Amino acid sequence: MGGVKEERWEQSMADAYRQLESLVAKRESQGEEQGEPRTEKQLFALLTQVYLNEEEVRVRQKLKRKSSQRISRVMHEKVGNFLAQRLTDYEFLAMEGLLFAKKNGKVVAVLKCIPDLGSYDTHSWNATIARFAKQYQKRYQLATEQLLFVVCSLSKSLDAAHAKELTGIEVWSGTALTAPAYREALQAYVCKCVETMEALPAPAQQIYFLSADIHPNALACQLIQGETTSLPDRWLRPSVSELIQYLDSRL
Questions:
Q1: Which comes out higher in pLDDT, residue 83 or 198?
Q2: What CA–CA distances, in Å, run from 164 to 62, 64, 169?
Q3: How far is CA 67 from CA 11, 50, 71, 127, 242, in A?
Q4: Which of 87, 127, 185, 217 has the most CB atoms in a 10 Å sphere around its CB?
Q5: Rounded to an integer, what distance in angstroms lies between the CA atom of residue 84 and that of residue 104?
Q6: d(CA 78, CA 43)
Q7: What confidence tier does 33 reach under pLDDT thresholds 50, 70, 90?
Q8: Looking at residue 100, what is its pLDDT?
Q9: What percent of the chain shows pLDDT beyond 90?
Q10: Which residues contact 52 (CB under 8 A, 6 or more apart)?
Q11: What is the per-residue burial (b if ≥16 Cβ within 10 Å, else e) of 167-190?
């Protein structure tokens, strides 16, 4: 890349970062008027920034695709900093794709950030979580109740047939569940999925969610391309705010 083409790319990246800042400011202004919590949108914007940064690395190093390992490392570092600002009695250490939460030098919990549940070669959310739980228990000698998960987006993660099986919701595709008309139905489905998580002893306190639809990587791509876009306007439960409350209660 060189000359005019490089200048255009650098300008598009600079515009993307500015637009993300503008979206955050706009959402916070609207949120204050509507009493909306700020935590989820701030974290989602932070994750979007991780993907913007990775795209810069990819282009400058002339790589064919983004590095999922680097994204995971940076994501857990950023989330650790984010939580440390809100849980000052904790120490957070990102290591090997996990975030270790320590209190008085003792590991209290271990957090795994999952961009979406549709990127893993498993037949269900429960199977994905079970695989992670088994892997980390063995590698770090962790108790199952110490494991926490944050799912950043349900993009590519929804199964229409499974939704009907659990809740009776009937849609023509999993993607349709993210439409505004299915807002309550989607939350009911997520709650049912969490309830049936056999891999975790207390799933409602161990798996948390962010966006119902857009993926932070997709938002980053839209910003780079200069498309008109916005931050998500709804957040799933159990939420990241509830995660912070849960950790705070364990002090």
A1: 83
A2: 45, 39, 5
A3: 23, 11, 6, 24, 30
A4: 217
A5: 14
A6: 9
A7: very low
A8: 96
A9: 52
A10: 13, 16, 17, 20, 220, 223, 224
A11: bebebeebebbbeeebeebbbbbb
Q: What is the DSSP letter of 212?
A: S
DSSP reduced 3-state for 59: helix
Sequence letter at residue 163: A
Q: Which residues contact 243 (CB under 8 A, 6 or more apart)?
A: 148, 150, 208
**Does 238 sit behind a cis peptide bond, omega within 30 degrees of 0 on the bond before it?**
yes
Distance CA 238, CA 202 (A): 12
User: What is the model's pTM?
Assistant: 0.90
98-103: strand order across its sheet: 91-95, 98-103, 106-116, 147-153, 207-211
C-beta separation of 154 from 212 below 8 A: yes
Place of tokens 């637009």: 19
111, 150 Cβ separation under 8 angstroms: yes
* Number of Cα atoms under 13 Å in the Cβ half of residue 217: 17
Written as one letter, the residue type at 127 is A
Tell me if 103 sits within 8 A of 89, measured CB to CB.
Answer: yes
CA distances from 215 to 97, 108, 157 (A): 19, 29, 11
Name the 3-class secondary structure at 66: coil
Give the CB-side neighbour count of residue 139, counting CA atoms within 13 A: 12
- How far apart CA 227 and CA 16 sit, in angstroms, is 10
